[in-house]
Structure formats: structure tokens, C-alpha cells
């Protein structure tokens, strides 16, 4: 029997994953939510959560996470969820973010086919506006960095290159996601692991058995196969990118057509 641990309907789940005995599985959503959408209770242990319990012996759990720096949400995660994590011997994640191969494969899947360049698939005026916007971000990034980040040796040029260094080789959908992450708020939180990665690192530190329920290809190929309208419906904020760069949906649709997936 599955019951919610006071499930707050802040975010729609995107994935439904599987548990094994005595384990905690992370159910991941990719959308950012507003804290105001889920009113806080009087005490932390009374807060709603994305924790579900499967009644068995030993019990198993589903837990919903969000792709944001863990420091933004950790104090608001109720004790029942933290206790379930601590007591679990096996933890399954969406992907194994501690495996270098996972990171390498995620990077590779974002790239255009060999020999292709973003300039080849985007209309010229859009490409120029995108380039100007990234030049603006690079210029502003030093002022967005925090003293703590600089104290840890994280500098603006390095960070910009890490995020956008090969943007001209990326597929349009990944460029949209990249631009969405190049905001002052997001830059200030760079260097802090997202909740999923933080829990994976904790699981490794506590010597828990870990695993992944998906392969990189199972995530990348469907996303790479989306056309423009599907990207927007799937929660990728194409509208936000269009607003920032004054790019019309019709022009982006043309870019998808140039890629042969429109």
C-alpha cells in the first residue's frame, strides 16, 4: 500500500520510479516551483512533502526532489523525509550523478551532429541576438559572483566557460536551458550541489548502496527528439528565452526544421 506523507501538490511529477527493499528512491521533477504555492505549517515535522511510504517489511519510500541548490530547500524538507533517507540502506536515483561517465555522456548528448554548428541551424538574426546576449552575460558575471564563491576559487571566466564555453556546438533545446541558467540568481548559487546531487553525495559518504534507474540515453534522446511546441509544453521555458532575446516562436520552429526534427 502506498500512502502520501502529506504530499503537497507543488510540482507535477515527471518520473515515476521503482523501489527495492529497505530503500529510498528519489522521484525527480525538473520544474522549479514557488514556495508560496505550498503554505508552510507551524513546525517542520508537520510540513507537507513528496515522501510516500510503501508499507512492507522493511518499508520502502518514494521521495520527490527538485533540481535546485539544496540550500534553498533543505530547511523546508520535513523530518520524516530526512529520517527515511538516514534509515535507508539502498538509495536509487534518477541518474548516477557521481559517475564521471554520466556527466560526460550528458555533455555529449547535448551536441549537434558532427560538423554542425548552431550558426548553421539558427536564423542569422537570432544567432546574432543570442551571441550578443551571451556577451552581455559574460560582461556582467563578475558582478554576479559572491565573495564566498571567489573565496573558494570560483571565478567568473571559469564559470562562464564551464556553462557556455561550447554553446555554438549545442542543440537549440540545450541552448534554451543554458540561457535559463545564466541569470544572476542562478549564478550566485553555482558551486552548491542541487538537491539530487547532495543526497547522492551524502549516500556515498554514509556508505549506502546506491544505483540509478535510468541511463543517460533514456533522458537525452527523447529531449533531443522534441520539436519546439513539445519543448514548451514539457516545461522547458522557451517563452522566457524568447522574451530575453526577443526571439519569436516561429523563428525557433524554423530552427527546429533546419535540424530536421520540427
Main traits of this protein?
13 helices; 262 residues
Task: Classify the beta-strand content into a percent band.
Answer: 5-15%
Give the oligomeric state of the chains in this entry, treating copies of one chain as homo and distinct chains as hetero: single chain
Percentage of helical residues?
40-55%
Name the shape in a single word: globular
Main sheet: strand order: 1-3-4-2-5-6
Largest sheet: 6 strands, mixed
Low-confidence stretches: 1-24, 27-38, 234-239, 247-252
SSE pattern, N- to C-terminal: EEEEHEHHHHHHHHEHHHH
Total beta strands: 6
Mean pLDDT: 74
Number of DSSP helical runs: 13
Distance between the termini: 43 Å
Query: From the alpha-carbon coordinates, what is the Rg to the nearest angstrom?
Result: 20 Å
Helix/sheet category: alpha/beta
Descriptive account of the structure:
The radius of gyration is 20 Å and the shape is globular. By secondary structure, it is α/β, with parallel strands linked by helices. It has 13 helices and 6 strands. It has a 6-stranded mixed β-sheet with strand order 1-3-4-2-5-6, with helices on one face.
Q: In terms of topology, how is this protein built?
A:
Blueprint: E1 2-4, E2 23-29, E3 51-54, E4 60-66, H1 79-87, E5 90-93, H2 100-109, H3 118-121, H4 124-144, H5 147-151, H6 156-164, H7 172-180, H8 184-188, H9 195-205, E6 209-212, H10 216-224, H11 228-233, H12 238-245, H13 249-259
Parallel strand pairs: 2-4, 2-5, 5-6
Antiparallel strand pairs: 1-3, 3-4
Helix pairs in contact: 2-10, 4-6
